[in-house]
Every structure is written in structure tokens, then in C-alpha cells.
Amino acid sequence: MCRKRALIATVLAPIALVVASPVLAADPPKAQATAATPAKAAPAPVKASPQQRAEARRLDPLAQAAFWGAEFEVDPGDAEAGAGLAKALRALGRADESAIAATKGLIAHPDDKDLLLELARAHIARGQGFYAIEPARKVAAQSPKDWRPLTLLGVAYEQAERDEEAEAAHRQAIALGPNEATPLANYAMHLAAKGDLSGAEAQLRRAVTLPSATIQVRQNLALVVGLQGRLPEAEKLVRADLPPEQVANNLAYLRAVTGQAGQARSWDAMRASGGR
Question: CB count, 10 Å around CB of 18?
Fold first, then answer.
């Protein structure tokens, strides 16, 4: 079950310009040779301050990718920069590059939780959940009360077609984070993929009332409601968050698939086209 995001962007990497100093003509010969003047060394790159890094986290994904890419170039052993770059690349739909960035960061910090979580997310975004299982398990072992690796494991097991383990992981994630929208929403997607749209709706109804609910969670609810044939209600939910052109696309999709078989496959297609 593919969970890729169809967001495509290009990060413009900064180009370092090297300007050569002009060569000075030698003085006329003297009785004794003078020592050559040493060339002035270029200043070493300086990492951004904590305040600058905090400000960078509020930038759009394209700007974040450029910022964290520069930081990671300065210090490939910087775990925070590696995780930031991996997250930004994933947000841009560049999941393969995100996985590479996280993997590079883990060379110096093999147990870093943020890097491990980003690696798991990148593999899931690539549709390769099997490879997300090991990093997510590692974080779960380090932090047994953290819901994040468990909800990632649930999705990873789904993609690896290990449904019983997926169900258990999703339920454990909800137990660890009962007031978090993400575990409920991910479990709802699991139920919808199995054809249980009413069960998925119930989970999403809970999720959208929580402070951590995002547009993605609300649009998942709109999708599930629409797939059950309640298009006017789905349209109202869609219009609350999306611009008119995307509303039209999503409603056209729902009208096309309403009443057809294979709803689980259609659910995946909608998520991949930006409906999440």
C-alpha cells in the first residue's frame, strides 16, 4: 500500500564561488631572497546559531532544505542538521533523497531518535515500509512510552503486508498517545484500506476534535465520508481547507469512485494524489 506524497519541487543548492587572488609581481632580485608572504586563509564555515535554527524551522520546506543542506555540508556529523534536511526533503516529495540524508546522519549518530524516525518516515513515503520497520523498532525500544515509532510501525507493517502486526502496532500507538490525532488517523487509514469505512470514520471523528489535528486529518475524514456516498457532507469538509481547484479535483474523484468496488485501492490513489 503506497503512501507516497505527490509533491514535486526543486531545491536550488547554493553555489560556492572561489575567487582567486591576483598574483603579485616579484620584487627585483636582491642579495638575499625574501620569504614569500603566506596567503591569507579563507575563514572557516560557521554553523548557524540556535536562534537561526529555530527561525529556519518556520520556513517553507524549500527554504528549509537549502538551510539544513548548508548546515549538513558544514558538519556531516550534525544530527540535527541531518534530521532537518531529511524532513524537508520528504516534505518536498523527495523521499529517496530524504532516506539518503537520514542514513548519512546515522553514520555518526547510529542511535539518534530523530534521525531514525526520519529514516522510517522516508521509507514509508517511498512505499518501502519493510525498510522502515528496523529503525522504528529501534526507537520503540529506546523510548517505550513514545507513540511515534509505534504509529510508524503500524504503517510500515501495512506496506509489508503484515496486517496482524499492523493492527497491534496501531492500537498500541493509540494507547500511548490517546490525545494525539496522528495515531488515530493512521489507524483509520488502516481500517479504510481493509474496507471498514464506518470504522475509519469513527476514528477520524475522534481525531479531528483533538488540538493536534491537521488539514490532512480533516481531508481524510472528507474522503471517507465521500466514499460512503455522502457527497454533500464531504464537499463541505473539503471546502473548509482546500482552494477551489483542488476541491473540484477531489470531488470529481469522489463522484467517479462512489459506488464502485475496490474502495481500498481507491483510497490509496486519492492519498497519493494529494487528497490527504
Answer: 5
Whole-model pTM over 0.85? no
Residue 263 belongs to domain spanning = 204-276
Kindly report, residue by residue over 97-155, the tens digit of the pLDDT: 999 999 999 999 999 999 999 999 999 999 999 999 999 999 999 999 999 999 999 99
Q: In this structure, are residues 129 and 155 in contact, taking their beta carbons and an 8 Å threshold?
A: yes
221 part of a folded domain: yes
170, part of any domain: no
Please state the domain count of the chain: 1
